[in-house]
């Protein structure tokens, strides 16, 4: 357990949490590093449904550890899904073949919202805590264990639409036609996610990450008004309650979060220690925005996951270019560190050997770590 009630998270802690006792190591892990591109995952997955796998601590721990057996990674991310907590709120979750996730009934009215439960997270989602504790007991020393959740907006879109969406029509109808209901849903998700993330740290998570994959779909003005304040409150509350470093990922929106400038903190409360940047934003640009906003944070990212399709030399060159930009930003004092990662999750067609080349290049070209 690491609940120290401190309101200040040291940046060295980010390094420690990612297995960086020694300053010369450049931290690297990959979003969706466990999953369908690994034959050992597919072998296990062929025996059970995805949701069943998430609910089984033994199997979830096994899948969490699979990529660390293959690759020299610095962190494990617990195997689960951002939609799992929706089941505790009372929705039924299935992953139909080729359809992606489906949540029923969708939440599109005040009545449907009233039927949601405010769950006792430890009772309903204790299997995630058990998976974390089991993983932690098996994790080699020096490797960090990352817990995660989806951000209220991103999880909310699935709950409102009843699944994946391109245009987010039902979500935007709620934002524009019933903003009070939308705000109530965001607050419920904030409260449940706070309990859920604190539970994960109690169970052994060394660091936390919040995924806001669809945040970039809102206009910057709507995002700043309706979504960021509740998200920032969630992040700051969890950070203060647990004392572990917190990473925020805003898909297609990492620059807008920085364009909020000083408001990227909330009432002087720090919301995140690391900002995970997608590949559409230059790392050097994100670093300049960090400095302008007066933030004291590290950046994570931002290899295009599709770059891993390329031949070995191209993969290695893409990695070097990110390392060079990150090191320059660290040397210039713009950011406090860098964690190598993809700009969004690894894809099912990713060749596992390409992940190996990328990590090898981080170890070679990044041999002295992000800061000299
Ligand atoms: O990163 C990891 O290795 C940890 C596990 C993890 C999964 N999902 C496993 C998963 C994490 C961190 C997530 C997060 C997640 N889930 C996000 C946010 C990050 C992102 O990628 O944008 C989102 C939006 C989801 C929702 C979700 N889960 C969708 C839309 C889908 C279906 C599409 C797809 O990629 O399959 C999932 C399913 C899912 N989550 C799988 C895995 C390994 C595939 C399930 C299978 O085995 O069939």
Question: Can you characterise this structure?
Answer:
The chain has 372 residues and is α/β, with parallel strands linked by helices. The chain has a single domain (6-365), classed as TIM Barrel (Alpha-Beta Barrel), CATH 3.20.20.210. Helix content is 48%, strand content 12%. It has 16 helices and 9 strands. The protein has helices at 11-17, 39-45, 50-55, 57-70, 84-89, 110-114, 121-124, 126-138, 152-161, 169-177, 179-202, 220-242, 254-259, 283-292, 312-331, 352-365, and strands at residues 75-77, 92-96, 100-104, 144-150, 207-212, 246-250, 274-277, 298-303, 338-342. The strands form 2 sheets. It has a 7-stranded parallel sheet. The longest helix is centred in the middle third of the chain and has 24 residues, at 179-202. The model is unreliable at 4-8 (pLDDT under 50). The site of coproporphyrinogen III (CP3) has 22 residues, from β3.
Distance between the termini: 32 Å
What is the chain-wise order of helices and strands? Answer: HHHHEHEEHHHEHHHEHEHEHEHEH
Mean pLDDT: 92
Main sheet summary: 7 strands, parallel
Structural class: alpha/beta
| Cross-sheet strand order for the largest sheet | 1-4-5-6-7-8-9
Ligands (ions, cofactors included): coproporphyrinogen III
Fraction in beta strands: 5-15%
User: For the record, what CATH class applies?
Assistant: Alpha Beta
Spans of 5+ residues with little confidence (pLDDT < 50)? 4-8
CATH topology: TIM Barrel
Instruction: Categorize the overall geometry.
Output: globular
Q: Domain count, please report it.
A: 1
Q: Helix segment count?
A: 16
Relative helix content: 40-55%
Number of strands: 9
CATH architecture: Alpha-Beta Barrel
Output the radius of gyration: 19 Å
């Amino acid at each position: 357990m690491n609940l120290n009630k401190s309101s200040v998270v040291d940046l060295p802690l980010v390094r420690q949490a990612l297995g960086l006792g020694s300053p010369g190591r450049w931290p690297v892990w990959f979003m969706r590093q466990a999953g369908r591109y690994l034959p050992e995952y597919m072998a296990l997955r062929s025996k059970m449904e995805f949701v069943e796998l998430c609910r089984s601590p033994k199997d979830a721990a096994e899948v969490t550890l699979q990529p660390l057996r293959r690759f020299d990674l610095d962190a494990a991310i617990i195997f689960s899904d951002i939609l799992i907590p929706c089941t505790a709120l009372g929705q039924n979750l299935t992953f139909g073949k080729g359809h992606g996730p489906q949540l029923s009934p969708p939440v599109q009215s005040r009545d449907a919202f009233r039927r949601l439960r405010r769950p006792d997270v430890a009772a309903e989602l204790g299997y995630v805590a058990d998976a974390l504790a089991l993983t932690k007991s098996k994790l080699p020393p020096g490797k960090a264990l990352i817990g995660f959740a989806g951000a209220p907006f991103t999880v909310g879109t699935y709950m409102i639409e009843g699944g994946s969406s391109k245009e987010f029509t039902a979500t935007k109808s709620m934002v524009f036609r019933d903003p009070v209901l939308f705000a109530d849903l965001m607050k419920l998700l904030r409260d449940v996610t706070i309990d859920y993330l604190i539970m994960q740290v109690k169970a052994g998570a060394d660091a936390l990450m919040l995924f806001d994959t669809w945040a970039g779909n809102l206009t910057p003005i709507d995002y700043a008004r309706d979504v960021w304040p509740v998200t920032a409150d969630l992040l700051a509350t969890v950070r203060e309650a647990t004392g572990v470093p917190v990473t925020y990922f805003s898909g297609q929106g990492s620059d807008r979060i920085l364009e909020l400038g000083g408001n990227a903190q909330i009432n002087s409360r720090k919301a995140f220690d690391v900002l995970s940047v997608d590949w559409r934003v230059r790392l050097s640009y994100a670093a300049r925005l960090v400095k302008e906003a007066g933030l004291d944070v590290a950046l994570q990212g931002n290899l295009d996951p599709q770059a891993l399709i390329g031949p070995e030399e191209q993969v290695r060159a893409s990695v070097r270019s990110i390392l060079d930009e990150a090191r320059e930003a660290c040397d210039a004092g713009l950011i406090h560190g860098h964690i190598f990662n993809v700009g969004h999750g690894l894809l099912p067609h990713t060749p596992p050997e390409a992940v190996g080349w990328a990590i090898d290049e981080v170890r070679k070209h990044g041999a002295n770590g992000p800061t000299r």
